[in-house]
Design a protein that fits this description.
52% helix, alpha+beta, 189 residues, two-stranded antiparallel sheet, single chain
């Protein structure tokens, strides 16, 4: 389950990228209705709507398309909305991507439900984000999370390297390795 804010953010990015017509034509009718009349920001919608959008983006832009769209959506939509929360978290616990990745479950709780997140550090400047979904989403959804990890590096002010995801447990779980440069700058006020 997702908040309406997630669908709105992705639809806005898809439109800015000039992909809306192709994406709209490729998604099921239920998702097309959400494109035509985006849900309220605080409403709850099925996560399959985002899956549909990301699969359609992959058809339009290739397998890396969902990654780029998710990163841009993070930077232009979610980052703006979540900026005070993310900055406060970094002030309290440290200004590195690991700080945010370790708290993905808590930080995303208002927008993403029924997904369990975990983070395992691999030193000071690296770690692995894991998510377990209630059922196996399409590959494009996991690829989108690679873009969200890139957004986390962007927000933290570091140059990061996000590896392609590994799908596990029948496609219900992903692991994404993230590395970043040692020195993180404080996020902009």
């Amino acid at each position: 389950m997702l908040s309406g804010a997630v669908i709105r953010g992705y639809v806005q990015t898809i439109e800015r990228e000039g992909l809306l017509a192709g994406v709209r034509a490729a998604v099921p009718e239920s998702t097309r209705k959400l494109i035509d009349k985006p849900p309220l920001v605080v409403s709850t919608v099925s996560g399959t709507a985002l899956d549909d959008l990301l699969v359609a983006v992959a058809k339009e832009r290739g397998p890396s398309g969902p990654r780029a769209i998710a990163r841009r959506t993070g930077n232009e939509s979610f980052g703006v909305v979540l900026k005070p929360l993310l900055q406060g978290t970094m002030r309290m616990f440290g200004s590195s991507p690991g700080t945010l990745l370790a708290r993905t479950g808590q930080l995303s709780a208002l927008m993403v439900r029924e997904v369990e997140f975990d983070y395992r550090p691999a030193g000071e400047n690296a770690g692995t984000l894991t998510a377990l979904f209630p059922s196996a989403p399409p590959r494009a959804t996991f690829t989108g999370w690679e873009g969200i990890c890139e957004f986390v590096c962007d927000f933290s002010g570091v140059s990061g390297k996000v590896a392609p995801h590994r799908a596990l447990e029948g496609g219900r779980r992903f692991e994404i390795d993230v590395r970043w440069e040692a020195a993180a700058r404080a996020p902009a006020p």
